[in-house]
Amino acid sequence: MESAATSEMVKSKMCSDSPPRAMDRTMLVLFDRLRSQFPERLLDLQVWTRGRAYEVFQPAPSEPHQSDTSKPRYSVGCIEGLLQAITMEVLHQRTQVDLFAEASSYLPELRPAIGTSASDRLKVVHLLAHATGFHSTNKAIIGDWQQVLEHLRTKGASFPPGTVCSWNGLGRRLLEELIIRVTGKAMSELTLTTIGELGVFTQAERRLESSSEDIMLELDELARLIRQAFRHGGPAARLLTDRGASIPVIRHPVSPRSSYPIAYASGLAKYSSGLWGQNGIGPGYSLAIRFTSDLEDMIAIAAAVPPLARDLVISLVETTISGAVPVQARGPIGSVIGCDWQEVAGTYVADDEEFIVVELGCDLLLCSVWRGPELLARLDLRVTNGDILVADPRWSSFQVEFFKHPESSVACLTLGQVTYIRSV
C-alpha cells in the first residue's frame, strides 16, 4: 500500500483511456527508493516513457510548499549550451549565420591570432562542440576581447580544429562575440527570443558575481522545448540525424556506466547509453536532461546532490524504463587505441593548471592527476586483452582513452571530457 507521502509527491499522468500498467507501480517503487536515499533534499524528477509521464517532487526543507500550479524554475547552467545549439540552428536556417563557414569570416582578427591553418579549419559549428582545438582556462576567457585574442596568440592550437573535443569555455566565448557582431544582441537575449518562438516563454536572472544572465526554466518547460526543437522537421532535428554533425570525445566507447558525453553535435551531447542531452549546475543543485532520438523517452532532473549522484539517478531511471539488466560497477572504463600501452608513460598537459602523470606498472597504467602541487586523484588502470582498461569500481562513471594525436601522432589522453597531450 502506498504511503500518504508517496501519493502526494508522486504522480502518474496517464494518456486518456489507457489502463494502468506495470510500469506505473515500478516507477512508484523507484521514486520511493530515491526519496529515501535523498531525504530532506530537493528532488525534482520527471520521466516520460511509453505514453506516460511520471514525476516526483520533494522540495528542500527551506523552500516554501509548491502547489500543483507553481513549479520551481532552475538556472540551467551548462544546459544553456544545448539551448544555444537550438538557437544557432535557427539562425543557420534563416541564413543569418552560416554554421559551416570559417569563424574568422565573422571574427577576422582570429586569423592573425590563431594562424592561417587553424583559421581555415575552425568553423562556427565547432564552437559549441568544444572542438576549437585550443585549451583554455576560465580566467583566460573572462576578460575583454583583446585578452582572449592574446591568449589564442600565445597558446597556439593543441589539435586541428574540428577533430578532437576537449571541454572548456573558449568556444562559447568566441560564439558570444560572433553573435553580438552579427545580430547586435547578447547570446542569452537571442536564446530567450528563440525558445520563446518555440512556445517556451521564460526569464533570465542576472548573476550576482558578474554581468552574465542565467536562463531559468521549469523541467517540463525544458522538456517541451526539446520536443519542439528536435521533433521531425524541427529546427534542431539535424543534430540527431546527421552522423557527420557529431565530433567524438571518445573514439572507442567501452564504458557503459560513464556519465560523460562520448560525442558532441554542436551543444548537444551524446552519452554511452545512446541518449542525448546535457548537464548543468545551478546554485545548490545539479540538473540534467536526457532523451532518445525519437523523443519517446525523456528524463529531466534537478536535485540538491553532486553530479555523480545525479548521474546515478539517471542510470537507475534508464534501467527501469528500458528493462535492461543493471550494469555492474566493475568493468571497462576505457581503452588504448592506435598506441602501444607500454609506450604511453609520461606527463600529459591541457590547460596549464592540471596535468596527469602516467607511469607503467605490471599490466598497469598508474595515473596521478595534479593541479599545480595538489594531488587530486590516483587512478590505477589495469590493461586487459584488446588493450581495454579496467579500474576500481569507484571510478566506474569515468571514461579514459589513450590515442594518437591526429597530426603529430604524439600520445593523447582523454579523461572524462578533457583531452591532454603528452609533453614528456
From TrEMBL:
Q: Where is the Beta-lactamase-related domain?
A: 83-193
Q: What's a Pfam family in this record? A: Beta-lactamase
SUPFAM superfamilies, from UniProt?
beta-lactamase/transpeptidase-like
What is the protein name for this chain?
A: Beta-lactamase-related domain-containing protein
